User: Fold Histidine kinase from Halolactibacillus miurensis.
Amino acid sequence: MKKIGQSFNDLKIRNKLLIVYMITVLLPIIISNIVFYQTTSDNFIQQKRRDADLMTEETKENVKQLIDQALGLSTTLYMDMRLYEFFDTTYTNPVDYIQGYTQVVHQYRKTVPLYNAIQDIQFYTTNPTMLYAGGVNMLNNEDSDDVWYNSLAHDGTPQILAAMDEAGVSLDVYRKLNYFSLYKNYLHVIHFQLDERMLNDAIHNVSIQGELYLLDAEDRVLFTTDQNHREGTIFTENTDVKEPYITRQMFTDQYIADWSVVTVVDESIYRAELSDSTKYILLLGLMNFILPAFLIIYLSRSFHSRLNNILDHTRHIEKKNFAEYPHVRSKDEIGQLANQINRMTRKMNELFNEVFKANLEKKELALREKEAQLSALQSQINPHFLFNALETIRMRSIMKDETETALMIENMAGIFRNSLKWGSNWVTVLDEVRLIQAFLEIQGYRFGERLTYHVYVDEQLADFEIPNLSFLPFVENASLHGIEPKKGTGNIDISITKTALGLRFVIEDDGVGIPESRLIRLQKELQDGATMGENVGIENIYYRLKLYYKDQFRMKIESEEGIGTTVTIDLPMQDSKLQAYLKVSD
Assistant:
């Protein structure tokens, strides 16, 4: 393999390009053209075979429809009691016979032109009192020796027989009239002669590049489009066709069981039709060969003449990542490329160091940005003066025995006191719940009996640490935006429970709810990380939790206008606030 590689390396660029052309262009084109031609030919032949199968099936259905016409009419006559009564009556007066004939037999014979498959209807009877004319014939002992007589079924099943003579083939339907057991005086038979022209048309009117044969159960040819094959002879698959494709469709009806329609097609005709396509494929293949060959030769000479000027200078390049080309004397495009490679090689070490340093600075900047963002989020409330003012007012209220007012001010002061703890990012669940209860007592003082609330906390979660003010803003939203606009009383249910993954906070209110369009916009803003405009409180909580827990927490807001709103927050379990802080620092 090394010798082959070395021999290939010793070749001139022109020869290498020619070899590449032959392997990557010439050979694939030859193979693809052969495969394309073979696939196209096979698909074409298969399609022609499917067409032959369809034409054979269509011919079978056409013949079946013609025979079904006669069978359908025979069934109508077979079940007509008037016909039995007419043929089984012993006539003493010709007038009575003619009257019955006109009312029954003549009516059926008039309908023959309406059935294109039926050429004539004849009736046979052993009744000697009839006038044998107008399609009524005497059934005598001589007829008992005929094939059609012996084939009559005792149960009245129609029999289809093919009669062959020098004039050709005729198909006849015979049926014994024995449906009504009441009429047993004489034997009666109906005979339908099928129209040979319609049967011939059913065979000849099919457009197919081959020959069609209608065969009986013994494979005798009844009708055919093959002028070299006589009716009445036995069909054999040993034909003079070069590449025969023979398809056979069997009849499944019990009256013509084992009859079949056979199509014989010469596939050499199909292959001859492909000759024109073959010429175009060959012409296209030659164009694909010649044009790329001229282009490869031209390019190989151009490369050879230009690369030969720098060939001696590239042989001594060491196989290192940042090795430079030696000095290049030529000033053409390839020489400029070599000089540019040298300059680029010298710069790569510098760029590598610069990019590495830039990445470190970028990471440090991102970390500082997160810390600054966290600090900014936490520095929104620092109202020392408000806390002092509230404490003064509370003391004055106590001095004036305004206990309820003093309690509300104490709750308010507690809320502001908590805002002074922003420097401490974590609080226990118990502290957060106390803050929530203080807020709800203030709202209860404000709304009176219009507001009821219930707070449930799993005792095991009392000392569990969470980010400060993670839940209170949602309680505020439920009160101010859910209950306050509502007419009548409102209720707020809060639960903090333990789940398999951590802590779950759920707040439900039966307030006015959030309009659907606004809810969709809010959910999209949370998902996309976009600014939420008037929903600053929710935005602050969401991004604070994201900074602490990254993607390990879940926040879900559900609402139905006029029904209420439910907010669910799932926080992962943390052994200490240090673990979450380390995650933020990462």
